[in-house]
């Protein structure tokens, strides 16, 4: 895939994310919120891309852009490790991408603590990716605490999906 | 929780329905009690035709403020024997005693162009004395609510001996939209939910605004850059700028020092969150905690010498107190469950907090040595207490359960009585109660 095509795919991802998450990263700081993470529309809009191993869609859907956490922990689970191994491999292969790791918490906690807990989770992901060879300069972390749940019910089936760290790709030719 | 020194009840029991009392009218707010002071507030006199609406509105607001505390009960106008047609006329005390109004508030309003003046007198009916002296407040017609709040504050203060809290404002987060894409913007309101004004738009998530001690500025956390950062907003002109914190990946949970010149806050780096202080004038930063655990939600004591904060250094969230310059911290919370968001009371004797235990959230208070813990509320999700200027009432956020869950600002007395939602359009959260206005 050419650089141009990659950029085009990413723009689509960004555009979709911008529609569903109008309030995130409005300033263009790089990350595009949940991207295709919530599974809305992207598969249909860019059919076939998920099978292109160099596409962000492949990263988001085939590898998996997120790992989940046990209540009040930031330890990467064995399932999470497998996903992050795939993410690391992808990032090493596709060196034109950077990522922001976004940490999240479920609603069962106070606002400030959940921001800090989300940061812990995002950082655990970053450290794991770095341990697998991804240059730390390509990874940033942030946390949304409990501000952006993806599942809205108030029981464990939703909480389990919300306790997450999402690796959000952004395209940036690191040329110099 | 309130007890009256009035000895009136005793007098009534001994001597029948109406009796002279010995002491002056005084309500001491403590933890046991219950029996509200009864008061009558005949509609304030309109000194000129232009003042009619304001006179009626202001007297209604005074009643609403006083009755809304739960410490006072209005004797309705239908029970009145004597009418007060003129502010200057002598008070017919027997007529007010007969309907068992312990306090009588009379007032008069004058409107001249956009100028509004309110004067009032407060009487202790059973002793037949004026309580304090007549007072006059001047303002604009548009600002009539403030005049009403000022009268109510003066009445509250004269009867309880404590400062009031009606003429104060609260900054909060106004919420709309579904739970997974909630739109948040800063807003400011009068303590009773009136006069809502927006301070920011909802283009980025904003959290946990905190008033400066004199109410001129607001600190809050904004996701404008994609990363949590602290902004300082000027309330008068809504201008805002980012606080230059110590270098870090995320900055949040800010509060002003009592002199408004410094900010204490949390900074996160590499998964570790600690407490820092930044001097607004010099830009100098000091790191106050040095542990690998999460330290956040710092709040200064009224004298500025100590900080109460939450930390999970023990394995879960608990409350600690340290010197305002950092160093050793002592744990003060030891009950079951987790404790967060401590806020030092304006009087310095109590800490309000959020407690999470057995799947429920509570707002509570404890003494600063951790003793006498008292839970004031219980719900699916209560959090983020803030103190009224006089330390008698706490506001907080309450979120309801489930996919359609919404957030509202509530208030409760520190006795646990008088729990109520602040009437607001739409969702609301993260209140921060400002000072009594000058």
Describe the protein.
The complex is a heterodimer of chains A (176) and B (438). Chain A has helices at residues 3-20, 42-45, 56-64, 78-93, 111-131, 156-162, and strands spanning 66-68, 97-104, 139-145, 164-171. With 176 residues, chain A is an alpha+beta fold. A four-stranded mixed sheet of chain A has the order 1-4-2-3. In chain A, α4 (78-93) crosses α5 (111-131). Chain A starts with a helix and ends in a 5-residue tail after the last strand. The model of chain A is unreliable at 1-48 (pLDDT under 50). With 438 residues, chain B is mostly beta strands. Chain B folds into two domains: 2-160, 3-Layer(aba) Sandwich (Rossmann fold); 168-436, Neuraminidase (6 Propeller). Chain B is 11% helix and 43% strand. Chain B is built from four helices and 33 strands. Chain B has helices spanning 8-15, 52-68, 93-98, 144-160; strands spanning 2-4, 27-29, 37-40, 45-46, 72-74, 103-112, 115-124, 129-130, 135-140, 168-176, 183-190, 197-198, 206-211, 217-222, 229-234, 240-242, 250-256, 262-269, 272-279, 285-287, 295-300, 306-311, 318-323, 326-331, 338-344, 350-357, 360-367, 374-375, 382-387, 393-399, 407-413, 420-421, 427-436. Chains A and B meet through α5 and β3 of A and β17 of B.
Please summarize what this structure is:
With 176 residues, chain A is α+β, with helices and mostly antiparallel strands.
Quick one: CATH superfamily of the largest domain in chain B?
Answer: TolB, C-terminal domain
Approximately how much beta-strand content do the residues of chain B carry? 35-45%
Strand arrangement across the biggest beta sheet of chain A: 1-4-2-3
Oligomer: heterodimer
Structural class of chain A: alpha+beta
Which CATH class of chain A applies here? Alpha Beta
Shape of chain A: globular
CATH homologous superfamily title of chain A: OmpA-like domain
């Amino acid at each position: 895939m050419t650089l141009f095509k990659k950029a085009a795919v990413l723009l689509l991802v960004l555009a979709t994310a911008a529609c569903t998450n109008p309030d995130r990263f409005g300033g263009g700081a790089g990350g595009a919120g949940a991207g295709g993470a919530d599974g809305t529309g992207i598969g249909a809009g860019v059919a076939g891309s998920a099978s292109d191993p160099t596409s962000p869609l492949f990263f988001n859907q085939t590898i998996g852009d997120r790992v989940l956490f046990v209540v009040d922990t930031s330890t990467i689970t064995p399932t999470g490790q497998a996903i992050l191994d795939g993410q690391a491999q992808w990032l090493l292969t596709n060196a034109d991408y950077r990522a922001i790791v976004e940490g999240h918490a479920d609603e069962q906690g106070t606002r400030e603590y959940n921001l800090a807990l989300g940061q812990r989770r995002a950082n655990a992901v970053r450290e794991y990716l770095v341990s697998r060879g991804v240059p730390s300069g390509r990874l940033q972390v942030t946390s949304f605490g409990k501000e952006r749940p993806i599942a809205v019910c108030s029981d464990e089936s939703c909480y389990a999906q919300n306790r997450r760290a999402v690796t959000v790709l952004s395209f940036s030719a690191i040329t110099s | 929780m309130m007890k009256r020194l009035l000895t009136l009840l005793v007098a009534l029991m001994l001597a029948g329905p109406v009796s002279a009392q010995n002491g002056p009218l005084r309500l001491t707010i403590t933890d046991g009690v219950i029996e509200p002071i009864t008061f009558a507030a005949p509609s304030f006199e309109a000194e000129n035709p232009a003042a009619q609406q304001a006179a009626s509105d202001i007297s209604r607001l005074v009643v609403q403020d006083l009755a809304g505390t739960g410490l006072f009960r209005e004797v309705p106008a239908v029970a009145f024997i004597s009418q007060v047609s003129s502010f200057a006329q002598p008070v017919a005390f027997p007529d007010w005693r007969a309907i068992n109004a312990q306090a009588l508030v009379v007032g008069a309003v004058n409107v001249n162009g956009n100028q509004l003046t309110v004067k009032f007198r407060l009487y202790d009916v059973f002793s037949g004395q004026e309580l304090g002296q007549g007072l006059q407040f001047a303002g604009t017609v548009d600002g009539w609510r403030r005049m009403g709040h000022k009268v109510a504050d003066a009445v509250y203060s004269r009867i309880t001996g404590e400062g009031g809290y009606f003429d104060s404002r609260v900054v909060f987060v106004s919420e709309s939209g579904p739970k997974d894409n909630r739109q948040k913007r800063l807003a400011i309101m009068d303590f009773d939910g009136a006069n809502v004004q927006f301070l920011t738009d909802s283009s980025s998530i904003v959290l946990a605004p905190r008033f400066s001690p004199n109410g001129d500025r607001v600190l809050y956390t904004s996701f404008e850059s994609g990363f949590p950062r602290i902004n300082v907003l000027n309330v008068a002109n809504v201008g805002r700028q980012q606080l230059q914190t110590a270098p870090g990946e995320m900055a949040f949970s800010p509060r002003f020092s009592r002199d408004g010149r410094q900010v204490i806050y949390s900074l996160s780096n590499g998964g570790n969150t600690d407490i820092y202080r930044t001097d607004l004038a010099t830009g100098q930063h000091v790191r106050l905690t040095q542990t690998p655990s999460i330290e956040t939600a710092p709040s200064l004591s009224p004298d500025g010498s100590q900080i109460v904060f939450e930390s999970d250094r023990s394995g879960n969230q608990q409350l600690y107190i340290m010197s305002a310059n950092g160093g050793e911290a002592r744990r003060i919370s030891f009950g079951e469950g987790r404790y967060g968001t401590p806020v030092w009371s304006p009087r310095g004797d109590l800490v309000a907090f959020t407690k999470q235990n057995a799947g429920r959230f509570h707002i509570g208070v404890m003494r600063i040595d951790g003793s006498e813990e008292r839970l004031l509320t219980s719900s699916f999700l209560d959090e983020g207490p803030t103190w009224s200027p006089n330390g008698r009432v706490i506001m907080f956020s309450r979120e309801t359960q489930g996919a359609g869950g919404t957030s509202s600002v509530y208030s409760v007395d520190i006795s646990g009585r008088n729990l109520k939602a602040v009437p607001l359009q739409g969702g609301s959260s993260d209140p921060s109660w400002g000072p009594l206005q000058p």
